[in-house]
Design a protein that fits this description.
about 270 residues, single chain, Cathepsin B, Chain A, 6 strands, alpha+beta
């Protein structure tokens, strides 16, 4: 069943979730940023309504979701990336009423994302809604799928209390809802909530609480193991430390390769030299 809520002033978000959507505690929790402050990793910012447009894209859910993905991408890789809001807004089915959080997250998770330069927002003052939301080419659609070869995107709805945000911000920035508008909460303190917007100025703060919250996670596939990770996985799998040869062999290898060989055929793995 889908629960839908009305908002008084709508900038592009439709509130509600499905009874099949993950809720807090479903995804594994890991502290990756102990400060819970994502300020150093914020993207430059983009307008959901360009000054030259005669219309608003109503894509705040997409803009805030991709701001989170771009923040996490920079945090994980040290590389800044600008993904196409226009692509995800179209692929997720954004309408003139906006979109649901889960629908945009599902689009990112299943259809992938592409660089802005591959499907850029038109800048002409004569741009229409139909032109902005035109169907991407098959080449762009296929390119978006390539992102999913290296990255996995998951999400869960969480409580929007201050305590909950302080807890979950140590894992990722949070997509939160101001009535009628989706933004990215990148820092919460005892005094204020700081958020990243798709209207100027991009960095804002408020003292009033949010009304909805969802956590998106960006997870690298086929992680390359360092020495500490090799030791940890050996302890988990075999209840011992690797010897010098094993440590040297697996350091720099993909975790998935270890799991395929070592876990699936544990007995033979232990009886054979590396």
């Amino acid at each position: 069943m889908l629960i839908k809520y009305k908002t008084m002033i709508n900038h592009g978000v439709i509130l509600g979730q499905r009874d099949t959507d993950y809720i807090a505690g479903t995804l594994p929790y890991e502290i990756v940023n102990p400060t819970g402050d994502w300020t150093p990793y914020l993207p430059p910012g983009e307008y959901q309504r360009l000054p030259s447009y005669s219309f608003d894209t109503m894509a705040c859910v997409t803009f805030s979701a991709l701001n989170i993905i771009e923040t996490l991408y920079f945090f994980n890789t040290g590389v800044r990336q600008n993904f196409s809001n226009r692509f995800t807004a179209r692929m997720s089915g954004t309408t003139q009423d906006g979109n649901w959080q889960w629908k945009v997250a599902d689009s990112i998770r299943k259809a992938g994302i592409v660089d802005e330069e591959l499907w850029p927002a038109p800048t002409s003052p004569s741009t229409t809604w139909g032109e902005y939301y035109s169907v991407p080419t098959i080449e762009v659609v296929n390119k978006a799928q390539e992102f999913l070869n290296d990255w996995e995107v998951t999400y869960e709805f969480i409580d929007f209390t201050r305590e909950s945000l302080l807890y979950h911000l140590k894992q990722a920035p949070i997509q939160v809802i101001i009535p009628g508008h989706a933004v990215m909460n990148f820092l919460t303190t005892d005094q204020v909530y700081k958020y990243f917007d798709s209207y100027s100025p991009f960095v804002k703060e408020r003292v009033e609480p949010f009304v909805y919250a969802m956590k998106l996670l960006l997870i690298k596939k086929n992680k390359i193991m360092n020495q500490d990770q090799v030791i940890k996985i050996y302890r988990l799998a075999f209840y011992r430390n690797p010897d010098a040869t094993e440590l040297a062999y697996w350091t720099g290898k993909e975790l998935s390769a270890f799991l395929d060989i070592a876990i699936k055929d544990r007995a033979n793995f232990l009886s054979q030299p590396v």
